[in-house]
Amino acid sequence: QGPAPRSDKALALGSAFAPRLPQRLAMRILLGVLLVAPLLGGRCEEGSTAPPEQRACSPGLDSFPFCNTSLPVPQRVWDLIGRLDLSEKPPLLTARESPKGNVSRLGIPEYDWGGNCVHGVQSRCVGDVCPTMFPSPNSLGNGWNASSWELMGYIIGRELRALRLHGAGENREDNLPHIGLDCWSPNINLNRDPRWGRNQEVVSEDPFLTSIYGLKYTRGLQRRSSDGYTLAIVTLKHFAAYSLDEWEGISRHSFDANVTARDFVDSYFPAFRTAVIGGDAKGVMCSYNSINGVPACANDWLLNTVLRGDWGFNGYITSDTGAIQDIYDQHKYVTDPEAAVAISVKAGCDVDSGAPYDKFLVPAVEKGLVNESQVDGRLYNSLKLRFELGLFDPPESQAYHNISLSEVGQQSTRDLNRLMARESMVLMRNPQPGLKHSAARHMIKQKHQHTQSAADARILPFASGKKVAVVGPHFNASQALVGNYLGQACPTYGSFDCITTLLEGVVEANGDGLVQAAQGCDVKSQSMAGFDPALAIAQWGDVVVLAMGIDQSVEGESHDRTSIDLPGVQPQFALKVLDLCKPTALVLIHGGMLAIERLLEHPCADYLAIISAGYPGPEGADAIAAALFGLYSPGGKLSNTWYPSKYISEVSMTSMSFTEFPGRTYKYYQGVPTFTFGYGLSYTSFDMKLCSESELYADTHQSSPLRIKVEVKNTGRSHGDEVIQVFAVAGDLDLPSPPPPMAKKELVAFQRVSLPPNASRNITFSVHIADLGAVLESGKRVVTQGSFVLDITNGVALHELINVHLYGDPKTVWSLPL
């Protein structure tokens, strides 16, 4: 259920917030949800008025063999396919056309392929019960909490079940189509280029971090019940090498991504491969773009040789919406729609989100361009999942069919949502005011913050009860906090008035203090007309909250950026605020990173603290305000590199190479980043010591992982979280000449830990030998004799090093099929 509507008196009296979640209760809440959720929903709540759901094999139409639950699922699916006429097949292979796709004579109801669950169910509310919107994936990545990702996936699946049962449709005004049980999520593409408009939908630039996210989301959403049914179906997107939408006249609908074998194995494929092999993902979406000259949805090598053949994928593949039409209309790969349909079916695309299959599949069969048996193969892959979801079995005894609507947005879910929003806050900068030194010296000094006393007087946290000025284009943000790919946010369709604004969050957190606010400028306006009133308020305040960034008008699907700077006159306004030399907290609302080095060079930069808030979701105002006033200590870490402004002039948006100068991501970038991957500060301090041997030896063919243990201690005065990261740094390796490009370092493990003051905890990492290797130009990942250094770090000042010595014959752990 969505947050309660705001009071008109909120700014004067403080908002009526749900109870705050103390950090010390975080693990208790996570445990509580994990224990209770499987027990919920045994039956519909008393008095439920849920409409009866259309289902297959209803009384009177349940005598077909495909309705016989004692038969194996494959046998049932083939029996159903054998009863279909050719004309009945295309609608069953077409997404987003519900209520089409039913076969009434066989008792088969409609089913909608195509619901989204990027960070929550993208459906309408049912009455005043609205789907939960979690933080956007770019914020989830900054949280570095794998357990939360899996739990979020499970909750999304349960909410999807409950909302569908009670008639929810996709988030459209007409409530149609009736939402299905497959989620076109997660988006596990990489943040390859900071200009990409959909960076808000992905967790990281890093293949390993993205792989863990995709794996955990998949396991949560597809959890099987004790009676053997799948909760919901993931659809990993967008396969593959997709990270350009619309940029300077170049469109995703016609773009050809030229990718080397090495970049496939090193960067573009790992997250998909991990979710398929490790998570048994049941769905994949092929992307709009071509790959090395062949459209993804018509790419036999990509879908059959790699995905189904090499990785053993046994689920369904859908096109992105309109991608089949693009094959002939934009890519010009074939000349007519029948040929495009035929080649897509042969390549393994089971479901078409668009019109071509519905209109042209039968003519393609009649012309002999594709065999009906190949069409039946596509039907088998998609219909099988509907059986595994329990949609052809009696529903009365299915636990997942009977999840109560009251579970949607329940308090434990809201508590988790608030925790995840708080975990995503990254304290990027927090200097001691009044120290006169250059930006370069400041960055050096800042890197040692954790070694300084927690009593150092820094900009943040603000003390409550002061005069607080809130200025900037996002001063009263609500809708801007939640990102894109949204379910209905509030019971009034199209409204976001139930989401607490940033200003209301500050009013609440500031207690009895006074708050004044003004916008100053719009997100991308060139007008400076609002500068003076806002600067007067900033001058009045004891401290300043400077709320800036971007929104969906600047970045989004079909909308890449051409600049990574703060847009419009925001830089000029920020510099004017800094001229006041007042304690200022810059809060950045954003998806993709922002180039802000000009602000760091200001003479009064010692008065500037910075928090990256991402798109933190409906609990974001609380998370931001509570961080500003020290109600918890931020513990997020950057999941992407923050480049200087000049970076985009040095690298082409259309280049798919990660290693071409100046390089992409922390692994290959050869310049000096403004903020590094894995970086994030805290209000408390930590220490770490190695509890394992500093010299380890392993056989290249060893199947058991290396076990590494460290002790992490909170040495400060407040409760805090720390994220410990393990990077592999290659030394001398026995590689063919010339050696392939090698990453500067590569993430191989991580763990987030929450500790009260003076408490410590031992953390054990498993580092797999397969991750201590190199990717050759041929597309082989090999482990050879040689050495690595494991750098165990908090991303700031703490480091423990382990030397790993590998011996034995070379081993190929993954070879790209060609």
How would you describe this protein?
The protein has 818 residues and is α/β, with parallel strands linked by helices. A hairpin with a 2-residue loop joins strand 8 (290-291) and strand 9.
Q: How is the topology of this model organized?
A:
Elements: H1 10-13, H2 26-36, H3 73-82, H4 89-92, H5 137-143, H6 146-165, E1 182-183, H7 207-221, E2 233-234, E3 236-239, E4 246-247, E5 250-251, E6 256-257, H8 261-268, H9 270-277, E7 283-286, E8 290-291, E9 294-295, H10 300-310, E10 316-319, H11 323-329, H12 337-347, H13 356-366, H14 372-388, H15 411-423, E11 426-429, H16 439-446, E12 468-471, H17 502-509, E13 515-518, H18 531-540, E14 543-549, H19 570-578, E15 584-589, H20 597-600, E16 608-614, H21 620-628, H22 647-650, H23 665-668, E17 686-690, E18 695-699, E19 706-714, E20 720-733, E21 746-755, E22 760-767, E23 774-775, E24 780-783, E25 786-793, E26 799-807, E27 811-815
Parallel strand pairs: 1-2, 3-7, 6-8, 7-10, 12-13, 12-14, 14-15, 15-16, 18-26
Antiparallel strand pairs: 4-5, 8-9, 11-16, 17-19, 19-22, 20-21, 20-25, 23-24, 24-27, 25-26
Query: Which percent range describes the beta-strand content?
Result: 15-25%
Helix content: 25-40%
What is the CA-atom radius of gyration, in angstroms? Answer: 27 Å
The computed structural class is alpha/beta
Low-pLDDT sequence parts: 1-52, 437-455
Mean residue pLDDT? 91
Q: What is the 3D shape?
A: globular
- Main beta-sheet strand count, sense and barrel state: 6 strands, mixed
Distance between the termini: 50 Å
Read across the widest sheet, the strand sequence of neighbours is: 11-16-15-14-12-13
